[in-house]
UniProtKB/TrEMBL annotation:
Chemical reaction(s) catalysed: dUMP + (6R)-5,10-methylene-5,6,7,8-tetrahydrofolate = 7,8-dihydrofolate + dTMP
Class of enzymatic activity (EC top level): transferase
GO biological process, one term: methylation
Active site location: 196, 196 (nucleophile)
Short name of one Pfam family: Thymidylat_synt
Claim: Transferase is one of the keywords in the record: yes
EC code: 2.1.1.45
Family, as annotated: Belongs to the thymidylate synthase family. Bacterial-type ThyA subfamily.
Gene: thyA
Residues the record lists as binding dUMP: 21, 176-177, 216-219, 227, 257-259
Species per Swiss-Prot/TrEMBL record: Chryseomicrobium palamuruense
Protein name: Thymidylate synthase
Length: 312
């Protein structure tokens, strides 16, 4: 994963300091590209432990067209909780303490962070057990899964972009239209978070499937290791579905940034030597019926996890 280390080093050397919506501040660059030859191993970061199970369950959640966090939290995947939590604490039904400006306050006030965590635990317990509550407050709006599997047309019909691109790859492999987009200008304002990894294009050559992702905004320390592995896994899944081998994953960035409170952790990561990449095993099942437990990671050895704050 030297490509990821090179991205971090490039930002530290060339990045500009910028303010952001969380109030934490970032150092970042605009425009960068990494390439991964997927035949050389699965690109799961080894210089800090990266939770593969969470990556798999989130991707399969997207592929099922789901937009409610209940599915994820029942698999102990909490990576989307903050945005759904905001729906609840900003509603008329919420009677607890003021949770506004979490990102700013939590970096300065330990007592507030503990209070936030207690309220979040209450929220997640209700999401898991109360279907009506989950339906009302676990919904994130028309985020990735909706756009990938159920893009609404003006005439009321819908487009299943994933099924469409799989059909296109099978029947017109050299087409230049193997595209899936999550950026829907008509619905962005209704999403809990506008799509960061927003546009992908697939490419077939010599019976190998490659994919290029355009990511408009990238939290390099926390988010990008997930994004690399998620889209590499998607290439593997669609390649298997279309009877192709894997080629390259090309990762192109718009705003690539490191939060200022992550800089010490990035220095720790860069001091470590990458280990050998693992491999994955995927069963003979449809891409739309896979479960998290179906996809196996083999030979993953990593340095210990590095804790870091989430800026929201």
């Amino acid at each position: 994963m030297k490509q990821y280390h090179e991205l971090c080093e490039y930002i530290l050397k060339n990045g500009a300091n910028r303010q952001d919506r969380t109030g934490v501040g970032t150092i970042g660059v605009f425009g960068y590209q990494m390439r991964f030859d997927l035949s050389m191993g699965f690109p799961l970061l080894t210089t800090k432990k990266t939770p593969f199970r969470l990556i798999v369950s989130e991707l399969l959640w997207f592929l099922k067209g789901d937009t409610n966090i209940q599915t994820l939290v029942r698999e102990n995947n909490n990576i989307w909780n903050e945005w759904a939590f905001d729906n609840w604490v900003n509603s008329n039904d919420y009677t607890g303490p003021n949770m506004e400006n979490f990102g700013i306050r939590a970096t300065k006030d330990e007592e507030f962070r503990k209070l936030y965590e207690e309220e979040m635990e209450t929220f997640i317990t209700r999401i898991k057990s109360d279907n009506d509550f989950a339906k009302k407050y676990g919904e994130l709006g028309p985020v990735y899964g909706r756009q990938w599997r159920d893009w609404k047309r003006q005439d009321g019909e819908s487009i299943d972009q994933i099924a469409q691109v799989i059909h296109s790859i099978k029947h017109h492999p050299h087409s230049r239209r193997h595209i899936v987009t999550a950026w829907n200008p008509a619905e962005v304002e209704h999403m809990a978070l506008p799509p960061c990894h927003s546009f992908m294009q697939f490419y077939v050559q010599d019976q190998k499937l490659s994919c290029q992702l355009y990511q408009r905004s990238a939290d390099v320390f926390l988010g990008v290791p997930f994004n690399i592995a998620s889209y590499a896994l998607l290439v593997h899944l669609i390649a298997k579905e279309t009877n192709l081998e894997v080629g390259e994953f090309v990762h192109t960035f718009g705003d690539a940034h490191i939060y200022l409170n992550h800089l010490p952790q990035v220095e720790i990561l860069l001091s470590r030597t990458p280990k050998s990449l693992p491999t994955i095993e995927i069963p003979e099942k449809s891409i739309f019926t896979l479960e998290t437990s179906d996809i196996l990671l083999k030979g993953y050895e990593s340095h210990p996890r590095i804790q870091a704050e989430i800026a929201v």
